Description:
Number of helices: 7
Oligomer: single chain
Largest sheet: none
Radius of gyration: 21 Å
Helix content: over 70%
Strand content: under 5%
Distance between the termini: 60 Å
Mean pLDDT: 87
Shape: globular
Amino acid sequence: MSSVPEMPESVTAVQVAMAPSWLGRMLSRVRDVFKRNLLPGLVLQGFVLLVIGGYYLLEPVYAFFMKVAQVKEAWGMFYAGVSTAVFAGLIPFLIQKSRPKYRDQIPNWHVGFFLVFWFVMGMVFDGFMRTQAMLYGQEGNLKTMLYKTATDMLVFTPLIGLPTISICLLWRQNRFGFGKTWGMVRQKSWWSERFMSMLIANWMVWTLAIAAVYSLPLPLQIPVQNLIMCFWCVLLIFLTDQTD
């Protein structure tokens, strides 16, 4: 029988006191995230169903996507970078700048950051999808889709994708100040509170959408993901504009 060294009473008391408070805060955040994202999340899922349903059920939509897939195969990772920069970076930036209440919040020259950042992320996404195709195959069956979705949402998103995106966007919000950004992300509370909230929101909103993306052939995964991301960003801009 092994024994565990007894901890000092004061340390034990602090840990016992903190554990439920963190859990309580996270449960509260989950409820808040659910309430805030219920309507836009449902709208997003409806949009995803329209896109995927159009691909599988409507010949003109299928033909259009096949042409997009040919362009994607011809241009490869460069297409992934450019299209992600346009759909996740440029279009949301221009729409946000067109709204009077946001016009002065983001300097015009920040568009360069968004274009470069999302260009790089587009190639990262494409490389990850290609890796998944090598690991699990390119079939769109249920088993392969579940493997890819689980790997994306439980490995790539929490360990690579979301940390990279959230830290880089935080760096931009801090006017590209490395010191201030590093001071924030090195705090445990940033990861246990803010990052976990973003991760939970990501799981709630994007799991079904990502599963739908992985049901498509590999050349269409980046184009459709970018279309969904663009719709989501624009939707949030207009919903925030209406509720604030």
